[in-house]
Write a structure and sequence with these properties.
390 residues; alpha/beta; Rossmann fold; 2 domains; seven-stranded mixed beta sheet; six-stranded parallel beta sheet; 12 helices; 18% strand
């Protein structure tokens, strides 16, 4: 009888433990660290949004969190921060931006027990670093290579975005809102920036075609992700020659567009996050017409929740997923969008018009090309392809 009771108690305890635990993770097992790319957590862009999402998740779920800022803009310095984070016991590392391609190549195999979450890091970013590290020559065509040959995919999750979609939305909105002389100022001609730009051109052209008008667009890259006197001078020239609005796409390069725009009553379009707050507060109220946004916050928060709370790492590891439209009825649920609250809506383009646009894109009525191997063809916009300013 005693043995039977002991057996029953043991089984009950085991069942209780299983019921309590299930597939859920113990948050005490995790420490989350974020590494900034080459900016700071106050950049009003990638770093800040990712930091805020990590911080919010960790505070709400009592998970230890910190961030590390590299001393400079190099793979070696980013790797040094990963080394430091791992040495201090952090085992989930969040890295925002394409610049982490080389970091993934160097650290994923070194730390197989660490979970790496890389935002906006594509196969091409990993291949460029990996192929070069092995003495090869990367041809910038990911389909010619097996990316998993160049990093330990078992402990890395990468999420990239369909920038061409929110670029299209911003360009379409700008023309519908009455802007006919447009500009695109990219940071560097890297794939994400090019997808933004080529989507923007397509959206501008589509809206102009619907309105039965012709518009013009100047297109250039600053060849850096920050503004300076030379780029501001170029923007001064654009606005003085009649440019109404510039989509400033790439880190802090918006500074040059904003500095030039405010002198002549011009406008700008922000990128990555809703930049109206930082741009308008610094340069002038109403300067930012809209922003082409990525859902960095939900992508970061949701991944951490599913991996740490729900224990679903197996659904993420080894994947490079593309985040875009997930709803045709709720634009704010999508991973690419323009802001509902701060876009300068007007009778010519209302929130309802935007919702119709998103529905048509989601349902496939409107198709946006993500091909950056060639410049998009246009019918109603004359594009001046100006290359690099610097």
């Amino acid at each position: 009888m005693k043995k039977f009771l002991v057996l029953v108690l043991s089984v009950c305890m085991l069942m209780s433990l299983c019921a309590c635990g299930g597939s859920k993770s113990n948050t005490a097992d995790y420490k989350v660290a974020m590494i900034t790319d080459y900016g700071d957590i106050t950049d009003q862009s990638f770093n800040q949004t990712t930091y805020e999402a990590c911080k919010a998740f960790c505070e709400e779920n009592k998970v230890e969190f910190t961030y590390f800022k590299p001393e400079g803009d190099s793979t070696a310095q980013r790797v040094a921060m990963v080394d430091k984070a791992v040495d201090e016991g952090y085992n989930v590392i969040v890295m925002p931006g394409y610049a982490f391609g080389g970091t993934i190549v160097e650290t994923s195999g070194e730390y197989p027990d660490v979970k790496f979450i890389a935002l906006d890091v594509a196969a091409g970013d990993i291949l460029e670093a990996g192929v070069t590290a092995k003495g090869g020559s990367y041809d910038y065509n990911p389909s010619n290579w097996n990316v998993k040959d160049y990093y330990n995919s078992d402990n890395v999750y990468c999420a990239i975005y369909q920038e061409e979609l929110c670029g299209y939305m911003a360009g379409y909105a700008a023309v519908k809102l009455g802007y006919k002389e447009l500009g695109f100022l990219g940071g560097m001609a890297v794939p994400a920036v090019m997808r933004y730009g080529y989507g923007y051109v397509q959206g501008v052209d589509a809206a102009a075609k619907e309105l039965g008008i012709n518009v013009s667009l100047k297109y250039a890259y600053g060849n850096q992700f920050y503004g300076d006197a030379d780029i501001t001078a170029a923007m001064d020239t654009w606005y003085a020659a009649g440019t109404d609005i510039v989509f400033a796409c790439g880190g802090g390069i918006y500074q040059s567009a904003a500095e030039a725009a405010v002198k002549v009553g011009g406008k700008v379009i922000g990128v990555d996050v809703d930049q109206s707050g930082v741009i308008d507060s610094k340069y002038g109220k109403g300067l930012t017409v809209t922003s082409a946004m990525k859902g960095l916050y939900p992508a970061t928060y949701d991944a951490l929740k599913d991996i740490i709370i729900n224990g679903n790492w197996d659904n993420y590891k080894g994947k490079i997923v593309t985040l875009g439209l997930v709803s045709g009825t709720d634009p704010e649920a999508n991973y690419v969008q323009i802001p509902m609250d701060t876009t300068q809506w007007a009778d010519a383009f209302t929130q309802d018009n935007y919702k119709t646009l998103v529905a048509d894109m989601f349902n496939g009525k409107i198709k946006v090309s993500n091909d950056i191997s060639k410049e998009p063809a246009t019918s109603n916009v004359k594009v001046e392809w100006l290359g690099n300013i610097k």
